[in-house]
Specification:
The structure holds 3 protein chains of 3 kinds.
Chain A: E1 7-8, E2 13-18, E3 21-26, H1 28-34, E4 37-41, E5 48-49, E6 54-60, E7 64-68, E8 73-78, H2 81-84, H3 88-91, E9 100-103, H4 115-125
Antiparallel strand pairs in A: 1-2, 2-3, 3-9, 4-6, 5-8, 6-7, 8-9
Chain B: H1 7-17, H2 46-59, E1 64-65, H3 78-84, H4 87-90, H5 102-119, E2 123-124, H6 131-146, E3 150-154, H7 159-168, E4 176-180, E5 182-183, E6 186-187, H8 189-195, E7 200-207, H9 217-226, E8 230-235, E9 253-257, E10 273-277, E11 290-294, E12 300-304, H10 311-314, H11 327-364, E13 370-371, E14 380-384, H12 389-400, E15 402-403, E16 406-407, E17 418-422, H13 429-442
Parallel strand pairs in B: 1-15, 3-4, 3-7, 7-8, 8-9
Antiparallel strand pairs in B: 2-10, 5-6, 9-10, 11-12, 13-14, 14-17, 16-17
Helix pairs in contact in B: 3-11, 5-11, 6-7, 11-13
Chain C: H1 12-15, H2 51-63, H3 85-91, H4 94-97, H5 109-126, E1 130-132, H6 138-156, E2 162-166, H7 172-179, E3 183-187, H8 197-203, E4 208-214, H9 226-235, E5 239-243, H10 256-259, E6 263-265, E7 286-288, E8 300-304, E9 307-311, H11 328-339, H12 343-364, E10 380-382, H13 386-390, H14 395-404, E11 411-412, E12 422-424, H15 432-451, H16 453-457, H17 470-475
Parallel strand pairs in C: 2-3, 2-4, 4-5, 5-6
Antiparallel strand pairs in C: 1-7, 6-7, 8-9, 10-12, 11-12
The chains are: A alpha+beta, B alpha/beta, C alpha/beta.
Chain lengths: 127, 443, 481
Amino acid sequence: MKPEELKYTKTHEWIKIDGDVATVGVSDHAQHEMGDIVFVDLPKVGAKLEKGKQACVVESVKSAFDIYSPVSGEVSEVNNKLSEDPALLNQSPIDNGWIYKMKVSNADVSDLMDFKAYQEFIKTEVH
Amino acid sequence: MYISNTKQEKEEMLSAIGVKDFSELISSIPEEFLNPKISLPKALSEIEIYKKMRDLSDKNTVIKSFVGAGVYDHYTPSALKAIISRGEFLTAYTPYQAEASQGLLQTIYEYQSSMCALYEMDCSNASMYDGSTAFAEAVKACLRISGKKKILYSQGIDNRYIEVTRTYLADNKEFVFEMIPLKDGKLDITAAEKMMDSSTACIAVSNPNYFGVIEDIEAIGKKAAEKKILSICISDPFSLGILKTPGSCGFDFAVGEGQSLGLPMSYGGPYLGIFTSKKEYIRQMPGRICGLTKDKDGKRGFVLTLQAREQHIRRDKAASNICSNQALCALATTIYCSLLGPDGLKEACLINNSLAVKAAKELSKIKGVKLKYNQPFFNEFVIDLPLPASEIRRKVSSSFHIDPGLDLGHMGKEFENSLLVCLTETKDENDISLLKKAIEESI
Amino acid sequence: MNDIMKFDNELSIEKSRSGKRGIRFNCPSCETNIPNNFTRKSEPKLPELSEFDTVRHFTRLSKFNFSVDTHFYPLGSCTMKYNPRINEETSSFEGFTSLHPLSLDENAQGTLEIIYDAQNRLCELCGMDDATLWPVAGAHGEYTGILIAKKYFSVKGEGRDEIIVPDSAHGTNPATASMAGFKTVNIQSSPDGRLDLDVLKKNLTPRTAVIMLTVPNTLGIFEKNIKKICELAHANGSLVYMDGANLNALIGLVKPGDFGIDIMHLNMHKTFSTPHGGGGPGAGGILVKRILSPHLPKPRVEKKEGKYFLNENVPLSIGRIKAYLCNTQVLLRAYAYILNHGPEEFKSIAENAILNANYIKASLEKLYPSYSKEYCMHECVLTPSKELQEKGIKTLDIAKRLLDYGFHAPTVYFPLIVHEAIMIEPTETESKETLDSFISTMTKIHSEAMENPEMLKQAPHTMPVKRLDEVLAARQPNIKW
């Protein structure tokens, strides 16, 4: 997947929708800000997630970050490789470090940003 | 008073700060609150404190005690006392600066390892306040993991532990406590099986149980696993020198009161909450954990780890608000384990058990006294007396200077005449004769 | 850290040799009744060492450790004061240590008298009405205090479910609130670190049960409007909880009860000089106003006809918070400390704590600007100066370099609202001489940073280990042998 093909949230998750399956992860910018990821508390397969609500938690050494679901739906698959090797999320936040897939129907992503808008958004967020 | 600066030094400091008078430094405190009247006695000198504390300690009665019930009169080795009173350990703070705290961190690592070894569990935290709060945290972990609401617990668990757990659940009515009854002093496994259902978050047992009886924890662990219900075992760590371990019986969590590993009884504490779990629940453990790692040069070193679970990071999302451990008590038990080793601990357990067996035999010879349960026990057992046990306890205490055991009236009507008697290595056969005589003459 | 001893971190289990033993027992008859199927199948993997091996092992470990006895420990919010030895000796009298917690009351009169008297004295000192000394730590006390508030409202039939916590608070405050089933309402402090009355007013609603405050706050600043805050809370039917972590700044100087505080906790291991023991055990009492008395945890220590007793019959109590009473031996130490102080002596604790903190702040302010421009109370929050930040120096580098000079690091990166915070609490027991030496070391570190920032980023250089790989520790937890 290319970062340009994804949609982004203001809370730095990315999402890719393929038919009724959505794949979710965190942006390259976000993994960089988080630092070395030591643990990903994956959601449970079958869990029903709501748009904008907490989906799971990613931990670095001194912090924990809530990951919010970009759309509503039911978790259909999780990236179990992250349990073995959380560093994948740092090394490859999009291809190998995706977090979960979910079943969605008519997902509304109109309020999410495209890559270009997200890049602009990051610039405004820098303090 | 423990202030080192002289009057002159204080004046130098005030002038370095650039104020004439101390009161300028506290000008943000509204006048109306300053200089309140405090009606307290005047300060005592060190000698006066010594005398007053001596007098107060003499007002307690130092007595030969056969009371156990979760807190035990075990011997504290001299070497243990000497090591934990070293200022380097006693006056240190939490090892947040790992490079300056390697000694302490290593002792925590050794503590965690010793507890895992005793309980045969995968993980241990750096310790909690006491056995009851460790138990409450284990129940909470099970509620979190399972998402279910029913807590099944054995009647053989110290009722205080259940009360503390209720308090820890903030009296939330969502959660249901159901008690599994005992049958001849032992958990009724058939009843337990019937009570396990799809709403059950966990089953909790104690071994030995509150009445000293050894439970068949293998069968209980197996049943829980079959029904896919999380399980918690409370085990006296001392008894694990010889008794079957929670880990070998498949328990998900095992907790215990660490006081029995060399800590004095001290009227309630400080004690030590042992908290262990299976590997998959490592991130559900509350409190501190020490881990082994490497420094920049590849040298072995220790740090506090998995901190992202804790309150200083997770704030209102933390599993627990605990932000300390009982480090000095944990150190004491680690030393205790090192001094005894596996053989010493087993030997001590055998002495406890054989003295208890002997005492049970002797006390049952008294007319009108009999053993309440016909079950194997560890170092304490229940006898039924012909009179209310509280009456006999008071009589024996005041006339013979012996506390003969705990009267169990608080457990219900059928326990009114029951006395829970405990024997440890601090007693000997002569003490058993004295106890027998005292009870005999008080009936 | 220690020139004489070479640091080796061989574990006790690695020193173990089969057949060695530290302590032996004489087994009288060893007739047991434990059936075979109830015994463990393999022996526990514990070290086998002689007593001498054990003593040497742990004594050596004690040497690779900072402590108050050996090092200045300016840890903000932790109050690392001297731990008087008379407290140690007297709390270890056999009359105290040999007492079983389920002893008959008549056999425990001495300890019960101490608990009773300590409660009364602490109430008098803080202007509160009633107390419990059962909590065994600050956080344990906090939880007890919040449960008392919860019970108070539930008895009144009010379903208040929110607790207001300022963003400068200790992490335990929101954690405690959520543990007790409350929703935390975080409110932003004003730039000087104080509570903003307008923000507070906006957030006070019929759902507000409690406002949790730290006084002085975590920036070491006194909450000037404390009386107004309490009035607003009370007018709203809410209670005010004071986190007593910083009581060392107030003791003997003011009575928190006079502000209008309803519940507060005390840390015996901070204000009342009991040793920290490497992270515990502590003790944390709770003091309340009269209206909350009925809800204190059980049992209660009471006195009748000159005799003390434990009353288990407390129908409106929040219940039991620990199986067996309290960390009694810690309280005994605190009691000995209390005996050593009359009203004037207590006051001088606060005065000297405040003086020492301001002396450090004034002496270092040029190189390490203070977050607040006001005089501080018992602690100050400094930050690395602009020129240090331009060199890429972080607070962590300064903290680690201090270790090389034999000073424990201050509290760093707390409070969260201050970027790169360095929080210093010298306590009243440190001498001017020690403070001067700390000040000159901080000054020296500043010039080192300007000349050779790389050296600082690699600090510490003289400790038994260099900076440790925390990522490795968390990714692949190795927590036992």
